Every structure is written in C-alpha cells, then in structure tokens.
Amino acid sequence: MTELTIVQAINRGLAEAMRADPDVLVLGEDVGVNGGVFRATEGLHKEFGADRVIDTPLSETGIIGAAIGMALYGLKPIAEIQFVDFIYPAFDQIVSELAKFRYRSGGQYPCHVVIRSPYGGGIKGGLYHSQSPEAYFAHTAGLKVVIPSTPSDAKGLLTTAIHDPDPVLFLEPKRIYRAVSGEVPDGEHRVPFGEARIAREGSDVTLLAYGAMIPTCTQAAETLAASGVQAEVVDLRTLVPLDEAAILASVEKTGRVVIVHEAPRFCGYGAELAALLAEKAFFSLKAPVQRVTGYDTPFPYALENLYLPSAERIVHAARAAVAAG
Amino acid sequence: MSESAPVPEVATSENPTEIPAADLPKIYRAMVLARVVDERCLTLQRQGRIGFYVPLQGQEAAQVGSAWALDPEDWIFPAYRELAVALVRGVPVKLLLDQFIGNSGDVLKGRQMPNHYGYREFRFVTASSPVGTQISQAVGAAMAARWKGEEIVTVTYFGDGTTSSNDFHAGLNFAGVFKAPTIFFCQNNQWAISLPRDRQTKSETLAVKATAYGFPGVVVDGTDVHAVYRAVREARARALAGEGPTLIEAQVYRLGPHSTSDDPRRYRTDAELALWKEKDPLARMKHELLAAALLTEDDDVALWETTRKEVVAAFEAAEATPPVDPLTMFDDVFAERTPALEAQRAEFEESQKAGTGKS
User: In chain A, what are the domain boundaries?
Assistant: First the structure.
C-alpha cells in the first residue's frame, strides 16, 4: 500500500497498465511532454515514448475518432479530454459511434476506448471548467460511466476500465484530485463495475452520491451524527452499470433518501435514482425522496459555492426527511 | 487528371499502377453486378420488400477501381453508398440482401437501415449514418496498424458533402500530423442530397483541401477505372513508404436519387442528368472491352442476363430467410448484459409470451 492522492493514483494506474500491456496507449491534448494539465499523465511520455503517449492536435472529435479507430484495430486507447466541458465536439463520435459500434455491427466490432476526463465544480472554473455531464452519457446505451471518489477506487476502477471490453467514460472529480489522499494497493488492483461502496454506515437516512460529493456527504453525515441522526453514505462508483441491490438494501434499512449530485436537477442522474426508488422501494420509504443538486442554471462562476451542494444543504434535506416520517 | 499538389512517381515493378489486362473483364463484371443489385433494390423498395435504399449508379468505376487497387488486408471505412466496394471485397450478394431485409442471416442482426452493413471478415467496417465520423476512425486504425508493424493502409470513403463536416477536418488534420497510412477517397458525385457541389465549398476542387493539411490531393475522373486505380495504387505506395496520406477526389455523378426517400427532379435538371448519362462508367468500360476484343455484344447480353438471374435468386433466398429472434435486441449493447438489461430482457420475453408486448 502507498499513500497517494487521486491524481497520483490515476497516474500510477495508467503507468502500470501501460507496463503490463503494450497495446495500452494514451492520447489527448498536452498529455505527453507536459504530462497533462493536471499532471495525470506525468512521466508517461518519458517512460513510454511519443508513440504511446500521443500529444494530439486540439480536436476532441479527432481524439475520440482516432481512439475508436485504434480500438477497432485491437489497441486499448485511453483518451483524455482535458476538461469534460470540452467533450461536446466529440459527442457525435461518443454517442453515434463509440457507444453503438458493438451493437450496430452485430457484435463484430467491439470498441473498448476509455475516455478519462476531469469533471465538476469547486475550482473556480466557471461555466466551461466545472460541468457534470454524466447524465447525457448514462442515458446513452452502450457506454459505461464510472466516477471514483477515493484514490484506491481511482486506480482500481481505472484498471478495470482499461481491461473492460466495453467503452468507458471515466470521470475524475478534479476538485478532490489532490484534496483527498489515501492508501492505494500496489500492483494490480481492480475494483469491479456495478458494485457500490458503503462509504459510511448509518441507519436513519441514505445519502446517495458519487465522485466529489462523497466527501461532502461524509461531512454532512458527521454533522448529522452529532445530533443523533445516523446517515449511510452510498458511493455509487459506477453509474452504468448501477448497483441497484446496494441502493435498495440501504433504503430498506433507513427508509429515507437524499440524492446528491453537482449536475442540474432536471433530468439529472438523480432523477433516475428517484424513479428507481419509486418503482422498487416505494413500500420501504418513510419520507419523500429529497434531491440536493446543482440548480437548473448554467454553472455560475462567482456563485459556485452557493450553486454546488454543500454539507449544510445535505444536512437540511436529511433532517427534513427524518422529520417527515 | 489534374493535380492540386504533386504526387511523387512511385510506380515500380512491385507496384504496378496499371490494371492487369486479365482483370478488366472481372472489373466489368463487378460493375455490372453492382448495377444489377442497385436496379433490383430500387424496384424492391418501391414494392415495399425492403424499407429503404441508397443507390450508387454512376459511381461504379470509382468504387470498383479503388477497391481493386487495394490488398485484401487493407481496412475499409465506408460511408453508406459503397455497395460496389463491398462486392469487390467478396461480400456475397445474399449477405447484403439479408442486411437490407434485416433478417436472421444479417450479420448485423437486423439492427441497421439498409446500406449500413459491415463485415469484419472482409475488413469492411460497419457503416453509420452521420457523415464523416468514419474519417478520423480510419486515421486511428492506420496509426494502430503502423504501431503494430502491419503493412496495410486504411481507406475511407465519403462524398462531397462530407468535406464540410467536422470529422473531415479533424481526420485529415490528424492524418497530416501523424503521417497516417490512410487514403481519403472522396466520391464527388456533385450533389449532397439537394445541395450542389459549388454551394458546399468555394474551394476550386475538393482535393485542394489536402494542401492545407500538408499532403497531396489529386483529382481523378471517377468514371475512368484506370485513372482511379492508378491514383489509389500511388496513394497506397506513398502510405506504405511512410510518406503519409493522400486525398483523392474522384469526380463522378450520382445518376439516381440520394436515397429512395428523395426525388432529384426537385433540384436538378434533366439536361444535366443527360449530360452525365453519356459518361456512364459502365458504357465506357463496355466500349473499352469491346474495342480490346475482351468482350463481345453476345457476351455482354449473357452477362447481364446471368447476373440478373443470380441477383433474383439471391433475393429469393434472402426473403426466405427467417426473421431475427426478437430477444437478440438485448445482445451486444455490452459484451455481457448488465443486470438492468437482463431485467428488461426478461420483462420483454414475458410480455411476448403473454401477448401484451405485440407491435
């Protein structure tokens, strides 16, 4: 075990995967000599060379299109989109091509591209360096969507993604890239997809979240505990595939749910979770499902701390759920 | 043939740029087969026996000539109009017709509209409808092939309209930067549905666009199978020599509609069509073979007759092939069905059995 930050764990995961398999390569803007604007690919260019750590022209659609071609040919490309806010030029390649290749070819052309990209607010990034677009991609059949919240999961889920036969969008919580550190297993470490993690056990209310909202939820849970409310924090880890069983087991125990994400509320990933609870946990619920999310506005620069879910807002929602029944 | 940028002379004895004479009758047969399938499919669509069709009439020389110049190991990233390329690759007509119908013989399992086929066996990548997306993919695959040390090229097909797309720019730019062994084969058929070529771009030619990306672009007469073959052979040799990509603009004419959903009389004149019909690549090829005594009029009549019979028989066999199993709807979304897909599949199966899920 080694104590690492999230970004260090990602770097470690990339390096180890590249050492283990010559078909793994990295491409993206500034990923080579510069080591990535967040340093996630630092040292890779030096170790593996320019043919495997490819600095590309500034074109997201080109990056994903080329990565698809490489994957069709049998390589395992890991494409970096510098900020997920810039993924939209590649939306067509991701949604029309990457997600559908296996299906549209009747299974002839699997297309295992991993797209890594930092997402989320809290770094004073304004409209175009703060977004959380996971719902667009979770809505697209054929894509797996993964969001780690700890260094160990960052490496373990990334390693699983690199070896997964399907395309994976791997969203990295950039706000906690360096703010969170923890023990990370050395060597091969895989965390399976479709298995949520109970970040904190509790019996009174379930906080459903992922990525950078996990530390915020944990903080909220500590505040609640001080007033005798025990919150269970469920870290979904993979939005597709979703661990329904873990969610339903927690809600059966607590009967109350607060869903937390940074993205706008309307048609956000939380809406799917709320629908799941309505369909499958209706008789376990003691109180209406609460959502603490970004507002239905573009991401505001100066007001980001008021826009983003805070521990205080989560505490307030959890107390409302407890008061309701 | 005019050139917007110089192409090095690369013809060698190992890389003949002239079509072997013995191949010419075969090339003509491939063109006739494509034309017959095309005519038949237009009829079948009108009869409601296939849902949709994208014809290629007028583009046979460009397609057959280019495909003939490739090695079987080369990868093709087509658009949805490359029927003759697929035929040259060896895709059986029955298999194509299975795809047009979407039956259980369809390798794609009935998942796509007609013309969006693909066959890994023939290194012919499954097409999609968005235009241009295949271009940067072809570049990535070429980079991968080079990385693996494999001596192949990738060839991507697209039309004049696609030169306006994001991925045309992205793909050619990447190819230039990385010197990818890729051939960009543009069939300029003069019309992107209703938009004429001169409203698509103010560039004097489409080929000239390659200059900005740092590699040669050449214009060829796409009704001349020899010119097309030569250009592709040269581009292929360049690519394999590590000299990078080439953009080839084959000037052709779409003699039919964009698709069976389109009526070209709304936007172009009979006079224009008549002019290009005189340049029908099949007529041109036939006259060449007659002049070279490689074909007689009787041979030709027999060829068309035999080919029509073959295609009719293939379609009858395709129509007799059972429909797709509905449960395959849930396969190939992922390598393995997720729990959510497994649950939906079970729900669907139950509804089919109970008779509550009928269409």
Answer: 2-184, 197-324
